[in-house]
Design a protein that fits this description.
Helices cover 19% and strands 15% of the residues. It has 147 residues and is α+β, with helices and mostly antiparallel strands. Bound molecules: iron/sulfur cluster (2 copies).
Length: 147
């Protein structure tokens, strides 16, 4: 076995340690945005409305350890569901590795720089609207792009 290859090329998601698994997250923050589904077409749209626990400037969850208890809609990513969660952005490392696509060259594990995800234009904007500041009926007006 070639041990020079990085863990994300030699291990399956299920074989990774907790630290390796966590390090796959590029910190883009796009799974913390509200998304809308068109049930007829299956299309998914991204908004500029973020989960109430999301710190848009730091691009981080402010209560990561308790996120599932605090936000029941916060989906737990696992090696088993990473491939099938079609609403995850196509850039998400979990989705990409689950689909055998490898990591993009801007990924922080490759660049060694957390800010490379922002420079590549993948990270969310710091100017997001917190969900508790907008009425559910207005979410459609906050769509920014198709995902
Ligand atoms: S979309 Fe994927 S890579 Fe981006 S913050 Fe969410 S889990 Fe991490
Ligand atoms: S609870 Fe935290 S990890 Fe989950 S969607 Fe909200 S900000 Fe993101």
């Amino acid at each position: 076995m070639n041990t020079d290859r990085p863990f994300w090329e030699t291990k399956t998601l299920a074989e990774m340690s907790k630290a390796e698994w966590e390090s796959l997250c590029d910190g883009c923050g796009r799974c913390c945005l509200y998304i809308l589904h068109n049930e007829e077409t299956g299309d998914v749209f991204e908004t500029d409305v973020a989960c109430t626990l999301f710190d848009a400037r730091g691009r981080r969850c402010t209560d990561y350890e308790n996120r599932h208890a605090r936000v029941p809609d916060c989906v737990a990513l696992t090696p088993q569901n990473a491939k099938s969660l079609s609403w995850l952005p196509g850039t998400c490392a979990y989705r990409r590795l689950a689909r055998g696509e490898g990591l993009p060259d801007w990924h922080p594990l490759i660049t060694g720089d957390r800010d490379s995800v922002a420079r590549a234009g993948i990270a969310v904007s710091p100017d997001l609207i917190p969900e508790d500041a907008i009425d559910d009926g207005l979410l459609e007006s906050r769509i920014t792009k198709a995902r």
